[in-house]
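Re: duplicated header lines in exported structure tokens

Our pipeline writes sequence and tokens for each protein into one text file. With two proteins the header for the second block appears twice in some exports. Here is an export where it did not happen, for reference. First protein block:
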Amino acid sequence: MAKEGSTISGFADAFAQAISYALQYGVPLQALVDKFSHVRFEPSGMTRNPEIRFAKSIVDYIFRWLASKFMSPEAQFHAGVNGRELDDAGSTPHAAAGADHAGASAASVAKPAPYSTIQNQEDAPPCSTCGSIMIRSGACYKCSNCGNTSGCA
């Protein structure tokens, strides 16, 4: 994309302008984030951003970054921004702390979302086939996306 005048550069510029016009003419950011987050194509890989540790594509990274900067904590959680957890009431711990200050009970303690079935380990490697973060399977790692293993039987 860095070469001026390349096909990919032209597509990236046109896409950026289309998103800019969409936002200017009232398309909600939530709709764009829902549509373009977790879109998978190359290049993909690890990032230095602690809120978005692994980007599945440049488009995925951009829209999850937009969610992390401009959307509510609940929307960030649903977009896949790391470090966001919801309590049983469907709000983030920060929102629950604010409600607690307003007189709500202190029983609303932050818990992981009940529908989160796979817990990624911090040291798990990305899959060599599809790029998803692998999960531990015994002494090895297995990709929950494509089924590839880290070399174990």
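Second protein block, exported in the same file:
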Amino acid sequence: MQSGLVAYLDSVKSRDPAARSRWDVLFYPGVTALGLHRIAHWLWEGQLFFLARLVNHLARFLTAIDIHPGAKIGKRFFLDHGFSVIGESAEIGDDVTIYQHVTLGGTNPTTGVGGKRHPTLHNGVVVGSGAQILGPIEIGEGAKVGANSVVTKDVAPGQTVVGIPAKPVHVDAVHYSPGFMPYGTPCGEDVDPMRARLAELEEEIEELRRELKTLKTAGQPQPKVKSA
């Protein structure tokens, strides 16, 4: 058990350059919330719903992180800073990283598919701060969700999505951050697909203006040269 805790703390430390030691990581609110969730989930699985809810409320009071006792969370989960909400039927794989103010939200209970109303995050997913992932959708293995994105459709494995609504962007993630991309957002260039398209349109308009100016100049009558 001790070796498992040490391995977990080391996995968090490897994803957070601000962590000075394992002791630092041990007192992170996300680590505390996950530890209490393990207890609450065990009670929930044993149908001790009141006690599970009690532990859940204690965790939320201490950490400002609300993880429903029914949520299933894999190994080495890291929730940085906190202030996030994870719904009842959410499923999180191994080595997933979520930053602050993220919601794994659900659909209307009457329209959920077989009771599954919340998203599934597969192994190695990174979710940037402020992102909202809504409904029984799947975020594929190794996918990245950029900060403040709103995701309502499935995300393919290894894909990076940004924007409202979230759309895939063609970015070489390894180029910017080998092995791990903090906040799920590349920082080397503007990856918002809408702004990128607007920039392309502006360039096209400027090119058309230059061509029009050239045509106007060519069409103007040339001054006659008087012969000597």
